[in-house]
Every structure is written in C-alpha cells, then in structure tokens.
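Listing S7. Sequence submitted for prediction.
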Amino acid sequence: MARMTCWSRYILSTSLICIVVWYSLLNQCKQNVVPSQSDQTVVLNPSKHYLVSIQSEQHMAPNRKKINEKYLVYLCDEKRDCGGWGDRQRGMVSLFLLSLVWKRTFKILISSPCDIKPYYKPTKEYNWIFTKGELKGLKAKTKKTLAFISNDTPLLNLNMNNSEIAEVLYVKTNCYSYSNIAENYTQFLPDYLRNKNRATIFRETWNRFMIPTEKLTSQVSKIMSTGKINRDAKKSGKELICAHLRIGRSKYLPHDYTGIPLTAVPDVWDFIDHHFHKKSRIFVATDHLDVRQSAMSKYGRRYIGSFAYAMNPDKMRSNLTLACSSQESAYVDQLMLSKCDVLIFYRRSGFSLHASYLKTKWREIYAIMGHTKNSVSLKKTFY
C-alpha cells in the first residue's frame, strides 16, 4: 500500500512539472510573434538620392474614413502657367500615381482658364472633387503650394511622409516622368500598373479617375455623325481618318515651339490618299488655320472637322471667353481623335501622344516621327 502511495505522488509531481513547463513555453512564444508584413516598414530609394520609408499597406478605398487625412492636389490656377492640355494631363497622372504611393487622397483643382468640371467628372472609385465636408476640414490642416513645371526631379525626390510636409499639398506640375514613378514604386501600386509600358500606364491611370461628361461626349457624337458614311470604306475598318497636325510657332502662336512645317502638310494628305479608302471621312485637329483650310479645300464634304481654334490657354488669360473656348475645343478634339478608325499623330506633342494612348482600339496608329521642309516621316505604332 505504501508503494502505491509513493508511486501516485511521483505521477502527480511529474504531471505538475510538465504543466508548468508547457505554460512557460506558451507565454514565451506569444511574446516572440513575428510581425506581419503590413506591420513592417519597407525602405525604398526610387531616385538614389536618399532613403524614404513607406508603409507597405494596400491603398485605402477612397470612401473609407481616414484619421488625419492628407491630400495631394493637382493645381492649375491663374497665378502661374500650367501648360497646354497635354502638360496638364501628365501632371494629373503623375500626382495620381504619387497619391497611391504615399497614401494621400488625390484631388484636382483647375480654374484656369476655366473650370474643368463641365467637361470631365470623377469616377466612382476616385472622387477628385472636394466635398463640402472635406473643404470644411481643410481649415484645420497645414497647407503648402509647390510648383514643378518642367522640373521633375524635386517632385520625384519629395518624401511626403516627412513630418514637416504639409497635410494638404497643392502641386503645379507637367511631370514627364510618370512612367518612372510606376517603375520605381512598383510594389506600392495596384496590379494594373505593374510592369506596363508608358502608353498603358497613362491609359489605365487616366481612365481610373477621369470620365468625359455628357456635354463633352455629345459634341464628339455630333462630329462623328457628320458627313456621309461610305459602305465600302466602312467594311475596310478604316472609314474615319483622323490627324493631329501641330505646326507650332506661327503668326497665330508666335512664342510656341516649332512643329511640322506648313510645306510638309501636303505629304500627309498624300499618305492618306495612298493608304486609305477614297471616300473615307477626314477629321483634322490643328493649331493653324492654313492647315484647316487646306484640308477643307482638298477633301470637301469628306472633311468633318475640326473647326476650332487651338491655342495655349496660358497665353490667352486676358481674353477669358476665347481662352475657355480654345480649352473646350482641346477637350473635344482629343476625345474625337481617340475615337477614330485611323489616327495620325505628332509624337512631339503631348496632346497628340495622349490621344493615341487613349485610342479606343490600339490599331492603325501612325506617328509623325520627323520631317523635312517638304515631307514627313510616318511610322506605324504599336502599344
């Protein structure tokens, strides 16, 4: 009986020791849990100038409430030049990408020469218009305006997580380097922007936050319904031929850069005549009245537009009526160019290049690569 009692005590003691050891190990494991990836900080050096830290969390949905929300605002007002429509588009696309990287809410304020909202509206995913509640909340936030026109480096090197950076950043930029942003910050961007070429980055980004309004699309639809559509031309899939011919410096734009020589324009007409149906319709966007008159004279009823004046809005602020009319025509012309069966564009023009990026179908796109006094060099382009 004594032996049984000793044996029972031995078993009980051993069991108690095992329980104590197991409990100690369990607590130690809990204290040494490895933090998840979302809790860690990733170090990135996109420009090789200095290190910056960015939280590697997924981009918050725009309608999700944020604590101490910060903003990145594309600004275009009358206080300083913004550039043409192509410059402004590059600026907006670049800041949208940076807003994803730095987890700031993206907004747009364009008041020069006139408000953009009658012509473009936000998508459901990204509302770039300040709400009344947001505007009210701005009063308590720190603000700063920065300008990076024709100088991308300071913007790309800006650490927006720095505690000294304002909560609301208003930025004027025509940043050329949006593809560099996508390349350097790949791991912080959504899948649709990863490992893409420049055309895809622009197209996917622009369509994520911009939608043309009914006021704009109705004008384009009206142009597209103009003229007689030939059946044979329609069957060829190349019924509507569009071209953007940027002449640049001229009596109409004395301070602009030099584009295609007027004497080389007939070479574009020859290209159209030799490669496309003889009864296809013709649309030509240009900044020179002589080009328009030449197209109308040559193609007669086949010519369906444009009839607008394309001028740099920054240079016309003294005449807001004309400036706003010119800006509206730029919106209409570019959207129209993107809807054509065939597009001939001038690669040195951002306005023209972006029209090719936004083309409904990436086919039958021809770039004017260069020119002589009397001819142009055209190359079929593939994205």
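Caption to Listing S7: primary sequence and predicted structure tokens for the chain studied. The chain is about 35% helix and 20% strand. The chain has two domains: 41-212, 214-381.
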